[in-house]
Amino acid sequence: MDDKKYILFLSFALILSSLLIYFLHFLIFRDIKHLLSYFLLHLAFVPIDVLIVTIVIERILEHRDKINKLKKLNMLIGAFFNTVGEDLLKIILKADKGNIKSILKISNEWDNKKYEKIKKLLKNYNYDIDIEKINLYELKNLLDKNKEFLLRLMENPLLLEHDEFSELLLAVFHLADELHKREDLNNLPKSDLNHLKNDIIRVYKFLVIQWLNYVKHLKDNYPYLYSIYLRSNPFNEGSVIVTENN
Asked: pTM value?
């Protein structure tokens, strides 16, 4: 039985059951006025019932489901940064021509307002790199080595819930393809270098903003992991993961 037939059958069965119960009530008590009064009283409550069930309760369940999906998605984003993202950032940061390192020296004093302020700043930041300072072979090997991992991430249906992370992965795949198709990365013409530079900057912008979003997620939900990320911040050259006791 398909879904439509099942719904029709169930609806008919429920309506018939209700009519039979009302008829049984009439046979026993023989009070049609009371029966009609009872029926209209409950009928009047139906719109309120629909409001509560379909709007209030459904919205609460949708919100809870969305939160659970975002938690799972952030686990994927964390796996991405632990496996590929942080190393990718470190390679590109060596060539950054701006002051992004000073902007992203995150500390425990940063509150939500500070994160939102920095995120707006980063969306308008002039991302620029010196392509000569990037080890293209190191970049190519990193992406080739993790290609299967990145493919598995792309296949995850949770990505439908997060356009920004999907765009980051697409930009990374495009860069990986561009590097993979060039066998000799040492003697590229200027036009080719400029093309790769633009591809790297596209990845860089998505990468930085996603990194900041993920760190804020850790701050709000996992303080112990947040502490580790502060001590291993790739934008802070003086950060150390191991702390010494005095």
From this structure: 0.73
